[in-house]
Design brief:
By secondary structure, this protein is mainly alpha-helical. It has 5 helices and no strands. The longest helix has 27 residues.
Length: 130
């Protein structure tokens, strides 16, 4: 994955990598709050994908980042207040929105197209457990 990366591309890739890492903790924290095994499995599978995405992005950034727990601390209480029928549509919409964020990078960084496809699939998976 030796490709010339501009400073602005590197900054964006690092941002993507951080977001994927943060999402791992978030989905794991949400999984702990779920009532059914199916819900837990779906969220844990999404968390695993997010971790894989961060690893792909790290191959480009060459940066070892640490996940931030902000979303992992914020979403479980929101889940308790809002319930999944109100919270999951927001999270699903966010997942779907990341596809557009990744699109400008498809040509130069082909693996990102697979990440974006997973994000679209995550949006649908979240809808399936609402």
């Amino acid at each position: 994955m030796d490709v010339f990366i501009t400073v602005s591309e590197l900054e964006k890739l690092i941002s993507f990598q951080q977001g994927e890492l943060d999402a791992v903790l978030m989905y794991k924290a949400l999984a702990e709050k779920m009532k059914t095994e199916k819900e837990k499995e779906v969220l844990l599978s999404i968390a695993a994908d997010e971790g894989r995405h961060a690893a792909i992005l790290r191959q480009y950034t060459k940066k070892k980042l640490e996940p931030k727990s902000t979303l992992a601390r914020l979403l479980p209480p929101l889940y308790k207040i809002m319930g999944k029928k109100r919270l999951f549509p927001i999270v699903s919409k966010f997942e779907a929105g990341t596809v557009a964020s990744y699109e400008p990078y498809f040509k130069k960084f082909p693996e990102i197209k697979g990440i974006a496809a997973d994000e679209a699939r995550h949006a649908e998976l979240l809808k399936s457990i609402m």
